[in-house]
Design a protein that fits this description.
about 30% helix, four-stranded antiparallel beta sheet, alpha+beta, about 80 residues
């Protein structure tokens, strides 16, 4: 198991729709989540820590869900 920190930046007006799909994908694996207010340009930022077995598969799934945003990640711990 690995704990991965995801930094997701996406348009504020589409955040609700994307978050519902995102929560369905990582349900029960979220360790910590922070929502930041939108910038003046309308970009919202979400930082979350997720426990996963396969980081690459998780990133592929997230890229299919989040088409108009950016995802960056870093592995915090491995077990």
């Amino acid at each position: 198991m690995k704990i991965v920190e995801l930094d997701i930046k996406l348009p504020y007006d589409k955040r609700g729709k994307i978050l519902s799909k995102l929560c369905d994908r990582v349900r029960g694996k979220i360790k910590d989540i922070h929502f930041f207010p939108p910038t003046a340009c309308g970009i919202s930022e979400i930082k979350m820590e997720v426990e996963t077995e396969n980081v690459q598969k998780l990133l592929q799934d997230l890229k299919r869900i989040i088409k108009e945003g950016k995802i960056s990640f870093k592995v915090l711990a491995e077990a």
